[in-house]
Design goal:
By secondary structure, this protein is of the alpha/beta class. It has eleven helices and 16 strands.
Length: 335
């Protein structure tokens, strides 16, 4: 976190699950960083400002990434942009695809254009596993946002701004994860509902995911998609572990209700086509643009690194046992 000292960092979607944790880690772990928070949620933005006002290093601004003029105004003097604002609920994006386009695609282009206008040093977009071989509107819009980041890097090679994306899977305890759902169902006495017992998911705590996003800021050289390495769990095992830990002696039923529209049986963080332009680097798989010259000097840190031989897919990776999963969830205070 020392590399953020003296920097001004903008977080878009600062009141969302990921955005709020980005703000927390930046404010609490980098005493000399200034944080500019952007969100369209008035109430949450007000409370965010109150929470950190004592530090004197945070400013909160009511703005929507659909409004490029607001972005240009608030991005003045910013060194780094962490772009986490997005519409993220699969069903709602499927119902209102035009809204997903305006926020996730046009909004990302607005962030890019505002960053270029203000000569921002680095822009990191937080993407999702659903951008890989997308089966729904939300995933497709996030994939397009990744492509816009890559295109910005390729089109402005001498512009001084580094554009890159980071991609991770299910964040445990976030609004879209099964942890809060299972917890509510257990508290109500059941049943716990599974869409399909065979489903697997990559898992990571919010603090771990955000720490890797912050690490990727300095790893990025331009145009990459950086995929975080994550453990894998079965959703059914998650339900059993949570029932055993939180359900007391109650005989809570676990039922299967069938997959939802657009829902995958497994999570993909890197597909077949991307494997041939990917390197492993520490906690990441680094995927270069299809148009990038992998021999270029800016990618020299990858030249002697190992290469993956298969897609990064939760169906292909070793799954945590129930004992390992319980230790993971309890040790990280998820349950």
């Amino acid at each position: 976190m020392n590399r953020f000292e003296g920097k001004t960092v903008m977080v878009t979607g600062s009141c969302g699950t990921v955005g709020a944790e980005l703000v927390r880690q930046l404010v609490e772990e980098s005493p000399a960083v200034r944080v500019v928070c952007i969100d369209n949620n008035e109430s949450e933005l007000f409370f965010q400002l109150k929470r950190y006002a004592r530090t004197g290093r945070i400013s909160c601004h009511l703005a929507d990434i659909r409004d490029i003029e607001s972005l240009k105004l608030r991005m003045q003097g910013v060194d780094i942009v962490l772009h986490s604002a997005a519409l993220k609920h699969v069903g709602l994006c499927e119902d209102s695809p035009n809204q997903a386009i305006q926020t996730n695609i046009q909004g990302t282009q607005n962030v890019i254009d505002a960053a270029l206008a203000n000569h921002v040093g680095r822009v990191i977009f937080t993407s999702t596993d659903k951008a890989v071989n997308p089966t729904n509107v939300m995933g497709t819009s996030k994939l397009m946002a990744e492509r816009l980041m890559t295109a910005a890097s390729e089109s402005h090679r001498d512009g001084g701004t580094v554009f890159a994306s980071t991609r991770f899977g299910n964040v445990l305890g976030s609004r879209g994860s099964v942890i809060p759902l299972f917890r509510r169902q257990i508290e109500a006495g059941g049943p716990i509902t599974l869409t399909d017992r065979r489903m697997t998911r990559f898992i990571m705590t919010l603090s771990e995911a955000v720490a890797l996003v912050l690490e990727s800021v300095w790893l990025a050289k331009g145009g990459e998609v950086m995929v975080t390495k994550m453990p894998v769990a079965r959703i059914e095992d998650m339900a059993h572990v949570m029932r055993d830990r939180l359900g007391g002696r109650k005989d809570i039923e676990i039922t299967e209700i069938g997959a939802q529209p657009g829902e995958k049986m497994y999570e993909e963080l890197m597909n077949d086509e991307e494997v041939r332009r990917t390197w492993e680097y520490g906690n990441f798989f680094v995927i270069l643009s299809a148009f990038a010259d992998a021999r270029a000097g800016k990618y020299a840190h990858l030249h002697d690194q190992p290469r993956p031989d298969r897609p990064y897919n939760s169906a292909h990776e070793a799954v945590l046992s129930r004992e390992q999963l319980e230790a993971y969830l309890v040790g990280r205070q998820v349950i």
